[in-house]
Each structure stands twice: as C-alpha cells, then as structure tokens.
Amino acid sequence: MFFVSRGLQEVLPMSILHSAAKHTTIEVSLSFQALAVHRGSPLPGIRLSNPQPYMSLISERPRIVMIENFLTPQECQAMMGLAEPRLQASRVSTGSTTSFRTSSSTFLLDKMATHPAVMPFERRVTKLLSLLGPLAPRALHKTEAVQVVRYNKGEYYAEHFDNRAGNCGLRAATLMVYLSDVPSGGATHFPRSTGCRCEALDALDCFKDDAASFTATTLPRMRPHPQPYPGLRIQPKQGRAILFWSRLPSGEEDSCSLHSAERVRRGEKWIATRWLSDLEQSAAASEE
C-alpha cells in the first residue's frame, strides 16, 4: 500500500511508517511541480520541513485573500527582534493615543527599511502583487513604511477602516502578516464580511526561494470553514498573511472592510503591515 499525494512524483510505502518508532518524526524533502492543498496533515506520520505557501480567497466583500506560510518562523522572529527595541504606544491618524487602540508599534524607517530582517517580507510582497491578476482590477503598489505592532495580553484595536487612517488617500488595500501565534484571542474580525464560495486560488510554491519564479496550478474547491456569526474571524498563525481591500474597484470605500483586532486573552500578538495604493503616482515612491 502507498500514500500518494496529488501533484507529487514520489510515493511512500506503508512499510516505512510501520517500521518507524511510534513517536518518530520522518522529515521528507519533496520537489513540487504543482501543489494541491490538503486541509490537515499532508500525510499521516510525516512532517514537511518547509511548508509551501498557498493562497485562498476567503471573502468576496471585503475581498480578502489569505496566504499560508508567507514567512518562515525564523523570518518572523527576525522582524520582531528588529522592531521590539523601537516600540512605542500606538497612535491613530490624529497623532494621539486612544482607549480604542491599545498596543505598541513602530514604523521601519530609513536604514531599517532595507535591513536584512525586512527584505524577505518586502520581496514577497512584491511577488504577491505581481500574481494577483483579476483579483486586483487596479494594480496595487507599496505605500508608506512597514509597521510592526505588538499586542500584549488585554490589548486590542476597536472597529475601524484602514483607508481613513495614515495617508488615507493612498490606502486601497492592506497586507498584514501574523508574526506570532496567539494562544487565545487576538483574532482579526470583519463583522460585515459576506464570506465567499471558498474556491482555492493558485498555489504559490516558491516563496521560500526569493530568486526562483513561481509555479502554479488550479487547486480543487475547498469547503468553507464554519465561522461564528456574524462576519469572519481570522485567527493569528505565525507566518500567515491576509490581504484585504478597503476600496471597491470604483474607488469608493468598501463599507464591508470594517474590522477590528480582538482582545488578546493569553500571550502576545505580533503583526507586520504593508499598506498598498492603487494610484499610479505612488509606485515610484514605493520603490525608494
């Protein structure tokens, strides 16, 4: 008997698993020509040492794309380590601190913007934007500096619109990466999300090699995950990224993009955020 994973050239005999000790972990290095998503353990008794990124559409309004394994654990740790000594109380668009945003944050400016700890994140954002195709009727470009945020136990950010803060004229979409797991609480909540049919999008199997080109294949349809009513909650998971649009293709605000960072109940929550513009004039500035 063999375990066979769709899209793989390799097979694994059952005898290997039977002969292994009960608690042995078998690490396998596989070469993927294309990646089919399996919701759960890739193969019984096997742990892939380098999980491959993949992308799924999880909401149509607001449009939300989720990318698993966008960053490795080591890359997440490096970004947190760079930002931690520079954290200050988070502020809102008026420049003041408020009771509805309780966290610490910093923008990675000047030399930090090109620090080795930041470059894997920046390169992958650039690659992701080049792959969106019809998902982004208007091309997206980087705008503003990367922001790293830490939420301690009990901290949160109440419901808000991203396109009404910061350089709001440029914020058409937000790319946010969870740099840490959160034992309890800390979900990103979109209370007005309409959900979607949960069709899987193209697999992205080369994020871990920034010099490589992407290969992709159409994935099978996936069933939606049950969500507490109303809206959509996304639980932080280290390395997971979400990309969501604050504006409609017409340029009008998407009222469904209202969202919050729910209160952290145990542990810490770390995120890195890149705001994106759909205005051509911001493209040059984004490359500086």
Automatic annotation (TrEMBL):
A GO MF annotation of the entry reads: L-ascorbic acid binding
Name assigned to this protein: Fe2OG dioxygenase domain-containing protein
Species assigned in the record: [Myrmecia] bisecta
Q: Does the keyword Disulfide bond apply?
A: no
Q: What SMART domains does its record include?
A: P4Hc
- Membrane topology for this entry? Single-pass type II membrane protein
List the catalytic activities from the record.
Answer: L-prolyl-[collagen] + 2-oxoglutarate + O2 = trans-4-hydroxy-L-prolyl-[collagen] + succinate + CO2
Top-rank taxon of the source lineage equals Eukaryota
Pfam families associated with the record: 2OG-FeII_Oxy_3
Q: Which prosthetic group or cofactor does it need?
A: L-ascorbate
List residues of the Fe2OG dioxygenase domain. 142-278
- List keywords of the entry alphabetically: Dioxygenase, Iron, Metal-binding, Oxidoreductase
Q: What is its main location?
A: endoplasmic reticulum
